[in-house]
UniProtKB/TrEMBL annotation:
Gene3D superfamilies: Amino acid/polyamine transporter I. The chain crosses the membrane at residues 45-74, 162-179, 219-239, 259-277, 289-312, 318-341, 372-398, 443-465, 486-504, 510-526. Its main location: membrane. It comes from Winogradskyella alexanderae. Keywords: Cell membrane, Membrane, Signal, Symport, Transmembrane, Transmembrane helix, Transport. Residues 1-19 form the signal peptide. This is Alanine:cation symporter family protein. It is found in: Cell membrane. InterPro entries: Na/Ala_symport (IPR001463).
Length: 558
């Protein structure tokens, strides 16, 4: 398969180059024509209401309010269920998840290990990937430029105090991920060949049908699926390939144009090799890429943190002080809070429902087992990686001689850049890059590789999200499957070669639009999550009681 894809790309390259030359300037014309609609759509999704003199997007209010409710209702699962999540990812309960606790531990006569091994072939739980693979796939869809450039934007606009509210929003988002991913497994479909079909489309339609809201469920599911397909082509694909191309071109000193087109072809071939294999191949790739790229980024962050360890108390002092007593020019307390919450919500996508599509494919008989695993996702994405990025930037901006900021935070209202006394401006990914380079010379090159890997993993994860939504809308046939994958790869090339800012703006807003149908469904279905959590915790308790009575831990043999 790889040889055929490579040969095809080589044969098509001259034709594609000709097509690009023939269509030079078309992207700008499309951009100009589409921009008014894109601005309208973005404005609609980001419709704001005034709070404390500030305009707060309704989508952010919905995300934060829903997350806060779930956190309180489920008794702070981000803390109380964290140990269970770690144990589940490590495979401590894999035996009961495959076979059910009643079969293994709720018997007067314990089963022999050999008997258990023989049952694996024909009685294991439905699913296609492990807990870790599902988590890696979902994390790869959220960890990316939001953690690198997004944090820089938050700090530039809201100062160090925005970091505190990003952490709080990440902790609250853990409860939302727990709810949506538990529902994703509970209401998934299993095909005759064992293929899993899951996500908000299914728990909105099937879950609301079980509550007598069939019509509402179908409408919400359909709306979500359409938005998710659009988001997969735009924010989850074209935007990612565009940013990866910009970084690659900058690294090797090339301009855009045909170079971007060629880079797009290469990216499309690489993405195609992965996505043609389906969720199993995607999971195998992401379980390697995500720990690798996150490991490099975290290691570099730790090096900088330890190199500035003498300023660690000053950095956290600025974070806490800025969270409640913001410096002049930041728009006050509510301004800092809103900036932090908004950037965190955009970063971890808790409430958008996209991650539930990946988590639905896990092998388990207990939906809540994947729900507790999913709550680790915002913790990794926002609480850990975003906080480390923030500390690196804060250290970069501390003048050790007099403990003053080199660049002024929030110097211009609404500005997403830092401004020095001499008028020098810096922001976004450049700010993060310079912060790393200040301690690790040349790390900007490594950061470029990390950004490309982030973009690549995001694209392959979103290809799966979009494909599942596409199948929900157009059926599960091979022709529909192939058509979506071809369109997805075309958008990889478009994103790399074009400057369709309006299309990307429109598609990016689609990711946020997913919140409206998804959160409405979560608020109607959360009692089902409570029942599933009780069932899973009861199963764990029965296993622990059996082990205390001398029963062998059968998870060691699976």
């Amino acid at each position: 398969m790889k040889k055929y894809l490579l040969a095809t790309s080589v044969l098509l390259l001259p034709l594609l180059n000709f097509a690009q030359e023939a269509t030079k300037g078309i992207d700008e014309k499309v951009n100009d024509a589409f921009m008014p609609f894109a601005v309208w759509w973005e404005g609609l999704i980001l419709t704001s209401v005034p709070i404390a003199g500030l305009s707060v997007p309704l989508v952010v209010i919905l995300l934060v309010a829903g997350a806060t409710f779930f956190t309180v209702y489920f008794k702070f699962p981000s803390i109380t269920r964290f140990p269970t999540a770690i144990s589940t990812v490590r495979g401590k309960y894999v035996d009961i998840e495959k076979h059910g606790v009643a079969k293994l531990y709720d018997n007067e006569e314990p089963l022999d290990v050999d008997d258990i091994q023989r049952t694996i072939r024909d009685e294991s739980a439905a699913g296609e990937v492990s807990h870790f693979q599902a988590l890696a796939t979902a994390v790869s869809g959220t960890v990316g430029l939001g953690n690198i450039a997004g944090v820089a934007v938050a700090i530039a606009m809201g100062g160090p105090g925005a970091t505190f509210w990003m952490i709080i929003c990440g902790l609250l988002g853990m409860a939302t991920k727990f709810v949506e991913c538990t529902l994703g497994v509970k209401y998934r479909d299993v095909g005759d060949d064992g293929t899993i079909y899951g996500g908000p489309m299914y728990y909105l339609s099937k879950g609301l049908k079980s509550r007598g809201m069939t019509g509402l469920g179908k409408v919400l599911a359909g709306v979500f699926a359409v938005l998710c397909v659009g988001a997969s082509f735009g924010g989850g694909n074209a935007f990612q390939s565009n940013q990866a191309t910009v970084q690659i071109s900058s690294l090797i000193g090339l301009e855009g144009g045909s170079n971007g087109f060629i880079i797009g072809i290469i990216l499309a071939v690489l993405v195609g090799i992965v996505i043609i294999g389906g969720i199993k191949r995607i999971a195998k790739i992401t379980e390697k890429i995500v720990p690798f790229m996150a490991g490099i980024y975290v290691l570099a962050s730790l090096i900088i943190i330890f190199a500035n360890i003498s300023y660690i108390d000053d950095a956290f002092g600025l974070i806490f002080k800025g969270a409640f007593s913001p410096m002049a020019g930041l728009g006050g307390f509510m301004g800092v809070l809103i900036v932090g919450f908004q950037r965190a919500a955009f970063s971890n996508e808790a409430g958008a429902g996209s991650a539930a599509i990946a988590h639905s494919a896990v092998k388990t008989k207990y939906p809540a087992s994947e729900g507790v695993v999913a709550l680790l996702e915002p913790f990794i994405d926002t609480v850990v990686i975003c906080t480390m990025t923030a500390l690196v930037i804060i250290f970069f901006n501390i003048d050790g001689a007099n403990m003053q900021s080199v660049f002024e935070y929030g110097a211009v209202e609404g500005s997403n850049v830092l401004i020095s006394a001499t008028g020098e401006q810096i922001g976004g990914v450049d700010l993060t890059s310079e912060a790393f380079d200040s301690v690790i010379p040349g790390f900007s090159y490594v950061l470029t590789i990390a950004i490309v890997l982030f973009a690549f993993s995001t694209m392959i994860s979103w290809s799966y999200y979009g494909l599942q939504s596409w199948k929900y809308l157009f059926g599960r046939g091979q022709v529909a499957d192939l058509l979506y994958k071809i369109l997805f790869l075309v958008f990889v090339i478009i994103g790399a070669a074009a400057t369709l800012d309006a299309v990307i703006k429109f598609s990016d807003a689609m990711i946020l639009a997913l919140v409206f149908p998804n959160m409405l469904g979560l608020l109607l279905l959360f009692p089902r999550v409570r029942d599933e959590m009780k069932r899973y915790l009861d199963a764990i308790s029965k296993k622990q009681e059996a082990l205390e009575e001398g029963h062998e831990d059968l998870s060691k043999h699976l």
